[in-house]
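Worked Example 4.2. Consider the chain below.
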Amino acid sequence: MEDSFSLVPPYRRRECSDDRECAPTGSKRGTPHSDALRSHVISSVRAGLSCRNAATKYGVSVSAVRKWMRQFSRTGRLTAKTAGGDRSLLLKSERAWILARMAAEPHLTAAKLHQELCARGIRVGILSVQRLLKKEEIDWR
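Applying the procedure from the previous section yields the following structure tokens:
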């Protein structure tokens, strides 16, 4: 079952000599693939096409197809996850607790504080913790 339109973005296409579309030569880094492409790839695999054949057909990597299938089977979601964002916003609600914790135990390291935040269910990186402590002019070393 061939699709009547091209799902490979124009910046990824490569012309072939026999009037067929070839595999893309490169990608536009940092941008997710379209939801339409993801939908067609997932539909093809669910219809019986192998991940490898679907990847070749739609001009994406095999690992991308496998990740999309895993994500779809776990969450039922086709769209890409959001990228970027300000992770320090997560610590704004914990700022008072962090400052109280550092006042109670001044020699607490950023790594230990990070572990305690993780135990509280706050998922941020240790660098976010260090940035907050630096911003508050607290020595964590």
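Confidence is low (pLDDT under 50) at residues 13-26. The domain at 10-75 is CATH 1.10.10 (Arc Repressor Mutant, subunit A). Compare this with Example 4.1 before moving on.
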